[in-house]
Amino acid sequence: MGRGIEGLEEAYGIFFTGALIVLAILVVLCLIRAIIGPRVADRIVSVNMTGTMVIVIIAILALMQEEGYLVDICLIYAMISFLAVIVLVKVYMGVYLEGKRKKPNDHEDIIEKPAEEDAS
Questions:
Q1: How far apart are the C-alpha atoms of 70 and 60, rounded to whole Å?
Q2: Most buried among 6, 33, 89, 93, by the most CB within 10 A?
């Protein structure tokens, strides 16, 4: 950081390092959630959260390293992450609607039995 008070720079360094460690743990947990599911919606949300946390990690690294190009990478990654989630949702909705269309209605499965005549 280079322009402030020495103790403040050290405090920022400790804070940023702690934030990076916490975010890394959360990314691993989100990846585990993406693997075990159980629903597709859970997986899509966890992929989105992973992308968001990676963006924050890159932004913190840009502050720590004082590198401007990392902010550009962060913005590009944000756009790619957004498009990836949109594509995943479109694919999921297409598969869901296709499965719903192929599934016969419950009313068509019921075969009416002929009325039995009374033996009396």
A1: 9
A2: 33
pLDDT digits 0-9 by tens, 39-60? 888 888 999 999 999 999 999 9
- Backbone phi, psi, residue 111, to 5°: -100, 120
Instruction: Count other Cβ atoms within 10 Å, centred on residue 30.
Output: 20
pTM for the model stands at: 0.72
Between the CA of residue 73 and those of 25, 49, 66, 79, 99, what are the distances in Å? Answer: 22, 18, 14, 10, 39
User: What SS3 class is residue 104?
Assistant: coil
Is the pLDDT at 33 greater than 70? The verdict is yes
ω before 38 within 30° of 0 (cis)? yes
